[in-house]
Amino acid sequence: MTPAIQIRGLRYRYPDGTQALNGIDFHLDAGESVALFGANGSGKTTFVLHLNGLLRGEGSVEICGVPLADQTLEQIRSKVGVVFQDSDEQLFMPTVLEDVAFGPLNLGLSPDDALTRARTVLKRVGMAHALERAPYHLSAGEKKRVAIAGVLAMDPEILVLDEPTTFLDPPTRRDLLTLLRSLPQAKVVVTHDANLARALTTRAVFFEQGRIGGEGEVIEIIQRFHWEYS
Amino acid sequence: MHHLVIDRWSRGSSFLHQRDPRAKLAALLLFLIVLSTTPTSVQGAFGGYAVVLIIAVYMARLPILGLTARAALILPFSATFALLTWWSGDSLRALALVEKSFLSGLAALLLVATTPLTGWTAALESWRVPRMLILVMQFVYRYLFVIAEQAQRMRWAAACRGSRKQPKSRGFRLAAGLVGVLFARSWQRADGIYHAMLARGFRGRFVPAAPAPFRASDAVFLSACLAGCLAIRVLL
Predict the structure, then answer these.
(1) What is the rounded CA–CA span in Å between residue B219 and residue B103?
(2) Closest approach of chain A CAs to the CA of B188, in angstroms?
(3) Beta partners for A22?
(4) What is the pLDDT along chain B (236 residues), one digit of tens a residue?
(5) Is B209's CB within 8 Å of A115's CB?
(6) Chain A interface includes B213 (CB < 8 A)
(7) How far is B132 from chain A (nearest CA, A)?
(8) B226 CB contacts (<8 Å, ≥6 apart)?
(9) Angstroms from A189 CA to nearest CA on chain B
(10) Angle subtended by helix axes B43-59 and B21-36, to nearest 10
(11) Residue boundaries of the structural domains of chain A
(12) At residue A157, what are phi and psi to the nearest 5 degrees?
């Protein structure tokens, strides 16, 4: 079976000379969910920005069997949906409905089809009541839901979630977790939240200074790297 | 914030709110042309324009005091030039300068308060205004809130560490530092937004949803505006 993600020997150096990734080998099976742990600056976010070609380093990246290249960029971006840590960066259109329709319109859907799809996913994430609202008037939890809807509207095969529970209160985290667990896509979850990782993923990868320091079951990685503060 | 209130107003459902943004934009342009070409000596005409705008505000079910107070923000700027004109001995022209700027501001505000941002920017786009200019307007409007919030948090953080007790010279240095950090953060945010747009398939162009048709009622509205402005201009 073709893996959802297959990465070999990925290296990336920022223009200021910082070596952010230093030989990453990674794979994700279709429908699997994996947590990425690691200290701040260990390369997790840099890594996920490679999954849909926002950053391009040395090494090979294959998404659903399609190698990442200039010619395949559009195809790969429709397969990998990235939900960014800060929802304010992701919600840039004047209304919620237009924001969610932004991706489908870019995929070439007609305005009617794009708006229909946007309404469907907004209903799915529980935001059907906010179609005409401005994104900046929403609460943090609502913004996160709309950001997820914007990505789901592109019908991706892989969801990348960068710190999805940051800034959210416990009830909102619980609701978000329920929503994420109901989604069938393969997931890559960048998080410091061990509880979220335990509830949402089956495998964890630990990043250390641009390398993978260890991988295995979530509990095992949490214990091996002391990744809990209580 | 003022723009928060205006944003709420623009989502109303009055007769004016329901008019096509292109018709309202054209009406505004006509009004501004007629207003700017009205001789300063015809003071009655300015009263007529004011009455037309007040009727429009009433039809839009907007608070007249709130709207005029916001339009009055233009007065300190125009009053400066009016004062210079008055000193040079042309008091009628000075008065007309204040009247024209205030009425222009009120008319433009009326458009923005009865039309969501998407509507009037789409109208500008249909008039072939450069797309880049419209994009800049949309992004400035959208991220003004986010940047204003950041500025507020930084100001609070500075106040918590006793910035108010500092001498003025250090206060200026602090303000300069805050502006510098805000600029750097805005740049970082712009970078983040661009990444988020690329991740959702952006290829340098916003694909618009289908625009609403220009209805007969919009044409009637535009004609009535034109006739009203010309009638005041000619008769008063």
Answers:
(1) 24
(2) 10
(3) A11
(4) 445 688 788 888 899 999 999 999 999 999 999 999 999 888 889 999 999 999 999 999 999 999 999 999 899 999 999 999 999 888 889 999 999 999 999 999 999 999 988 788 888 888 888 878 888 887 787 777 778 777 877 877 777 776 666 666 777 777 788 888 888 888 888 888 888 888 888 877 677 665 667 888 889 999 998 898 888 888 87
(5) yes
(6) no
(7) 15
(8) B27, B30
(9) 16
(10) 160
(11) 33-44+77-224
(12) -95, -20
* Backbone phi and psi for residue A4, each to the nearest 5 degrees, phi listed first: -65, -40
Selecting from A89, A102, A112 the residue whose C-beta is nearest the C-beta of B189 gives A89
pLDDT tens digit string along A187-222? 999 999 898 999 999 999 999 999 999 999 999 999
Nearest CB to B142 within list A78, A92, A112: A92
Match 């500025």 to its residue by tokens: B151
Q: So what's the pLDDT on residue B83?
A: 92
Would you list the domain boundaries of chain B?
2-125+212-235, 130-199
Here the ipTM equals 0.79
- The pairing of strands A211-217 and A203-208 is antiparallel
CATH superfamily, domain at A33-44+77-224: P-loop containing nucleotide triphosphate hydrolases (3.40.50.300)
Residue with tokens 């008019």: B19
Closest-CA residue of B relative to A110 is: B209
CA nearest B126: which of B52, B225, B21, B231?
Answer: B21
Output the pTM of the full model: 0.72
Query: B118 — contact with chain A (CB < 8 Å)?
Result: yes
Give me the pLDDT at residue B2, please: 46
Structure confidence by residue, pLDDT tens digits, A68-96: 999 998 899 889 999 998 888 888 887 89
Q: What percent of chain B lies above the pLDDT cut of 90?
A: 36
Tokens standing for A223? 């214990």
Q: What share of chain B is helix, strand, coil (3-state, %, to 5)?
A: 80, 0, 20
Interface test with A, best of B200, B202, B205 (most A CBs within 10 A): B200
By C-alpha distance, the chain A residue nearest B136 is A92
How many contacts, defined by CB atoms under 8 Å, are there between A and B?
77
